[in-house]
Fold this sequence. Notes:
Blueprint: H1 3-6, E1 10-15, H2 23-36, E2 41-46, H3 48-51, H4 58-74, E3 83-86, H5 92-101, H6 106-110, H7 113-121, H8 128-142, E4 148-150, H9 156-173, E5 181-183, H10 218-226, H11 243-256, H12 260-266, H13 272-298, H14 301-330
Parallel strand pairs: 1-2, 2-3, 4-5
Amino acid sequence: MDAQAEKKPVVLSGVQPSGFVTLGNYLGAFKNWKSLQDENDCIYMIANLHAITVRQDPAALKKNTLEGLALVLACGVDPEKSDIFIQSHNPHHAQLSWVLSCYAQFGELSRMTQFKDKSAKYADNINGGLFTYPVLMASDILLYQTDFVPVGIDQKQHVELARTIANRFNGIYSDVFTMPDCILPKQGAKIMSLTDPSKKMSKSDPNPKSYVAVLDDRNTIIKKFKSAMTDSGSGIYRAEDKLGISNLMTIYSAVTGKNDEEIVKEFQNFGYGDFKAAVGETVADTLAPIKARFDEIIADKAYLKEVYTKGNERAMKRSAKTLSKVYKKVGFGI
Ligand code: TYM
């Protein structure tokens, strides 16, 4: 087999260190991050440059960045198999981002749903970074010649924009960037809020009952599921007018790997209350070992430093190649 044929596909993804990680982040992204490691060449980062598009307390940002890293490791990402690093440690991301911002159109950036949502939410701070955020994300992806980007559905539009930018750049300068594709999980690409299942589960929701944090304790998790909003009627099955039950079925399916038919059969004699408790207990059982590993890892700051330092060295070597190629193409190679 020649070297080219042996090359594994490159996978890249990131998470913002904004407070804590929700069950939505875990099922939409982290679970896939772990399972992709054996067959692919994986790169994962804590996206702290992205985080400052909304105001951050510096001490909290620092703490959340390390905790984010510890949590990624606790979820099963293995630094022996994957490169894990902190985005701000590699200056190539910001460097490529400037270049690519000159190849992204104002209209394209204005159409980003997340920009529109966040501008409505943080109306007193609609900064330039919030607007150009998808260009930075495109740079994260394109710097490593990424083939696949495992994300939840809310990031799909950003990955599509990365393709648009790559295509435009390649069209002008001949092939520089690999065209990336999204990988969405079969179940769990969009986990909805527990208190309003018409909305995405989000860490920025002011109501803590609306989300489960991966590090919530067992009782809190079960309580949150028990108070989850369900629909009028009865019966455990998926339907358009049963958003609450459908969301709980999605969560149960993503956690256990069971399909709808199996779930309907398993809970055919259950009322809503017992079903909610059962899902809560299953989720709590799944998250408990992650929390235990997290507690060990976060206590070992020397280990964390070793992981992010080595990860960054490897990441920078790779991203330097793409950046240098881009600089030459646009005429900076003096
Ligand atoms: P972030 O930090 O908002 O979310 C991290 C990952 O979790 C997914 N996710 C969800 N999945 C299912 N249901 C939900 N309710 C839910 N909420 C969040 C997100 O889709 C994401 O995959 N911009 C990114 C971070 C990033 C990135 C990148 C990702 C920066 N650079 C390059 C991929 C490639 C973000 O803010 O994710």
